[in-house]
Design brief:
It is globular and about 50 Å long. The protein has helices spanning 47-51, 117-133, 141-155, 159-162, 165-169, 174-181, 183-193, 206-217, and strands at residues 7-16, 20-27, 61-69, 77-88, 103-112. Helices cover 31% and strands 20% of the residues. Strands 2-1-5-4-3 form a five-stranded antiparallel beta sheet. The N and C termini lie far apart (54 Å). It is α+β, with helices and mostly antiparallel strands and 249 residues long. It has two domains: 7-161, 2-Layer Sandwich (Beta-Lactamase); 164-227, no CATH class. The chain is built from eight helices and five strands, in the order E-E-H-E-E-E-H-H-H-H-H-H-H. It comes from Anopheles melas. Belongs to the AVL9 family. This is UDENN domain-containing protein. Residues 8-249 form the UDENN domain. Pfam families: Avl9 (PF09794).
Length: 249
């Protein structure tokens, strides 16, 4: 993925009262040859749900980090950061027929080729705020410009700077996590070293994402290199011979 742009896509995921979470806009289109509206590759069928997680309607804003398998390389991952917003219907200047509830829930999301969640999160917050303040969700020019500017900003960095661990640690509130969790951070870190399965859950979801990234950042190069295969799914088939007593006589 070295030859790909740092920001692969920028998209909008909305909640439809009948269809549920769906991709409303993507640039460049997630499916080549389409207009980038309502299309999602089969390998990323869970993308809308990840970008707009369950329970997000209980909060006016939130962030969520997630990973997707690469569509081109089975040993690589794609990194997502989503900025969720919820506003009252009265704040929408141009209303469409699908806006049937008193609030509007949408998420502005970026898919990245590098695990620089915190670095993009700060900029994505401003992009989402400007997009919602327009009051017209069909005006996506601001998202196209943001995509070009984000890539231009990241490409302008020196290769050793963009590939260094410094960018991967931006936005990771490690000090706050240590003050909050204290010795439990050490326990979780040891479980990580022992390769134990640990379930993290919470609401809102952003503190949970920060906790996972914070613990992962304690292990050298785990975010910068170890996250490359975090979403890789390989199907392994085992041959199990049929017992003799089940074979046809």
């Amino acid at each position: 993925m070295q030859n790909q742009k740092p920001v692969l896509h920028i998209l909008v995921v909305g909640f439809h009262h009948k269809k549920g979470c769906q991709v409303e806009f993507s640039y460049p289109p997630l499916v080549a040859g389409t207009e980038g509206k309502g299309e999602c590759p089969s390998g990323w069928k869970y993308l809308p749900t990840l970008a707009l997680p369950d329970g997000s309607h209980n909060f006016s804003s939130d962030f969520v980090c997630f990973n997707l398998p690469s569509l081109t390389d089975p040993e690589q991952s794609v990194y997502g950061i989503s900025c969720y917003r919820q506003i009252a219907l009265e704040e929408v200047r141009i209303r469409t027929a699908d806006l049937t509830r008193s609030t509007v829930q949408k998420s502005v999301c970026t898919l990245l080729s590098l695990p620089i969640y915190g670095y993009v999160e700060v900029k994505l917050s401003l992009i989402a705020q400007a997009f919602f303040e327009q009051g017209d969700f069909s005006a996506t020019e601001i998202l196209v410009k943001a995509y070009e500017q984000l890539n231009a900003c990241l490409v302008s960095l020196e290769p050793q700077e963009i590939g260094s661990t410094r960018l991967h640690f931006v936005g990771v509130p490690l000090r706050d996590l240590l003050l909050k969790w204290r010795h439990k951070i050490l326990i979780l870190f040891k479980l990580l070293l022992l390769q134990k399965r640990v379930i993290f859950y919470g609401s809102p979801v952003h503190p949970t994402c920060a906790l996972i990234l914070g613990i992962a950042s304690l292990h050298p190069e785990l975010i910068s290199k170890g996250f490359q295969q975090v979403a890789c799914v390989k199907c392994v088939y085992f041959y199990r011979p049929i017992p003799s007593y089940l074979e046809a006589s």
